[in-house]
Structure formats: structure tokens, C-alpha cells
Design brief:
The complex is a heterodimer. By secondary structure, chain A is an all-beta fold. Chain A has strands at 3-6, 11-14, 19-21, 23-26, 33-38, 44-50, 56-59, 62-65, 75-77, 86-94, 97-100, 104-109. Classes of the chains: A mainly beta, B mainly beta.
């Protein structure tokens, strides 16, 4: 069945470091792909999305490119801030429901 | 900016009791969903709802669960007889479902604790 696999966390970085969180998916067809962020004690917020191959989603300095050939949607940010500390979830749209990865906790130290 | 709201934010109940979790989706959205997240685990799909009926449900969504849209604004999840393992954060979501836009917007969640 369809699934999403994310890199294990936690990822610990110093402020201004480069961030990559890997995400790969398995799917029949070409789903839309999403990154959601969950700040401590809060719900899920849509961070960015891409709906077709080679699309790049971007928001708040985060980017992810839909790579059909590698079935990947890795999240990147050039310079992280302490306020980016959160759990990041990769997800795919499958028959109008979202299938989430297990989440990757990011901790950014000053 | 419109948002999905959920009440209560935290519900404590005893095993075997019925609970109703409430959600107000974004007003012009057509698709509604419930997900749950057991502490420290991934977010899991429970059920989707469209045009006043369930469009899909997961294996988690057994006969103890039901959903309803009792009026034009609320969307509820009922658990008939709660079990300890129902303790989780429950998220409601909605999506426009028109013009090819199916991105889902989530509420802040209801933390359900079953004792």
C-alpha cells in the first residue's frame, strides 16, 4: 500500500545550520505531497506542498522538490532558527486522505 | 484567516464512557476528516466525510466510532465505549475539495485521556 518514510530523529542543529529532512514515498500514481509542522503543544500546520513532479513547494525559507524518479520530497532550509524547533511530518494524499510519515523532531540550539 | 476549531481542548473520561469530540470546519469546505495521534507516534487517518456520509474509514474506525454533521457547521466524532487505548490526540481537518484543491487544514486537536 501507499506509505511515507522519514528519517529518524531527533535532528539537532546549531542556529544558522543547513537543514535536510529526508522523505520518500511509495504510491500508485502521482499523489500530492505535503510537509506539515507541529510546534510543541500545538496542532498540525501545513508548511508547504507540491502537486506534481518537479514542483517545488516553499514557505518561510523551507523548500521541498517533488522528485518522481527518486520518489522523494526532502525538506530543506538554508539557515535554521531556534524557532524552527518542532516536529516535521511528510505526507501524501491518497484517495482524499493523508498518509503521514512518523515525523522528525528538529531541535535547534542557539 | 478562517481556521478549524475543536472543543474541548482536553477531555478526561473513564473507561467505558461515551465521549463526543466536536469540530467546526472552515465554512466553505466540503470534506471533513478525523485523525488521531497516540503520544509520540505518527498521525493516523480515522475517517473522511463528504456529502453527509462517510467516504472512507480506516481499520481503526470500528463500530465504537461514529461521525455526524448534525447541523451546517459542526462535525462530531463519538466514541461509544472508550478504552484505555483510545487515549490520544484527535485532530479534525477540512479541505475545500474543489478546483483540485484537497489540501487539509487541521484544528488544534482534542487530547483525550481515558482512565
Amino acid at each position: 500500500g501507499n506509505s511515507v518514510t522519514q528519517m529518524e530523529g531527533p535532528v539537532t542543529l546549531s542556529e544558522e545550520a543547513f537543514l535536510t529532512i529526508n522523505c520518500t514515498y511509495t504510491a500508485t500514481g502521482y499523489p500530492s505531497l505535503f510537509w506539515y509542522v507541529q510546534y510543541p503543544g500545538e496542532g498540525l500546520q501545513l508548511l508547504l506542498k507540491a502537486t506534481k513532479a518537479d514542483d517545488k513547494g516553499s514557505n518561510k525559507g523551507f523548500e521541498a522538490t517533488y522528485r518522481k524518479e527518486t520518489t522523494s520530497f526532502h525538506l530543506e532550509k538554508g539557515s535554521v532558527q531556534v524557532s524552527d524547533s518542532a516536529v516535521y511530518f511528510c505526507a501524501q494524499d491518497s484517495s482524499y486522505k493523508l498518509i503521514f510519515g512518523s515525523g522528525t523532531r528538529l531541535l535547534v540550539r542557539p | 484567516e478562517p481556521e478549524v476549531t475543536q472543543t474541548p481542548s482536553h477531555q478526561v473520561t473513564q473507561m467505558g464512557q461515551e465521549v463526543i469530540l466536536r469540530c467546526v470546519p472552515i465554512s466553505n469546505h466540503l470534506y471533513f476528516y478525523w485523525y488521531r495521534q497516540i503520544l509520540g507516534q505518527k498521525v493516523e487517518f480515522l475517517v473522511s466525510f463528504y456529502n453527509n456520509e462517510i467516504s472512507e474509514k480506516s481499520e481503526i474506525f470500528d463500530d465504537q466510532f461514529s461521525v455526524e454533521r448534525p447541523d451546517g457547521s459542526n462535525f462530531t466524532l463519538k466514541i461509544r465505549s472508550t478504552k484505555l487505548e483510545d487515549s490520544a490526540m484527535y485532530f479534525c481537518a477540512s479541505s475545500p475539495g474543489t478546483g483540485g484543491t484537497y489540501e487539509q487544514y487541521f484544528g488544534p486537536g482534542t487530547r483525550l485521556t481515558v482512565t
